[in-house]
Automatic annotation (TrEMBL):
<dbReference type="InterPro" id="IPR051768">
    <property type="entry name" value="Bact_secretion_toxin"/>
</dbReference>
<protein>
    <submittedName>
        <fullName>Hypothetical fig/282458.1.peg.573 homolog</fullName>
    </submittedName>
</protein>
């Protein structure tokens, strides 16, 4: 009878450990799902920004091709409105850089 009770205790203990492990796995998966849900809400904005930046870069590439003087092997630097793409590109770069710094600062504050 004692052996049977001992076997039951081991089985109960083993099952409790499995329940704890599965509970932890469930919690981790719920956290991943929450983060994916957040990303899903933000992703249209992210991809829109990528498309906008792609257009800006394309403007710069087109301009680089159009302002290259093959006879003198020099680039004629455009001015004014023609350089709006460069300003927009720099602003996007600064926005991304500041975002990275803010995330790093947030992580440091939570340590």
């Amino acid at each position: 009878m004692k052996k049977h009770a001992s076997d039951n205790q081991q089985a109960i203990s083993s099952n409790q450990q499995i329940i704890r492990t599965l509970g932890q796995q469930k919690h981790e998966l719920e956290e991943k799902l929450r983060k994916l849900g957040e990303f899903n809400q933000k992703s249209p904005e992210i991809f829109k920004e990528v498309e906008e930046f792609q257009k800006i870069v394309q403007q710069g590439l087109t301009q680089a091709q159009n302002f290259w003087n093959f006879s003198t092997n020099q680039f004629n630097i455009p001015s004014g409105k023609e350089l709006d793409w460069a300003k927009a590109s720099h602003e996007k770069y600064l926005k991304v850089a500041m975002g990275k710094l803010n995330k790093k600062a947030e992580k440091e504050n939570f340590k």
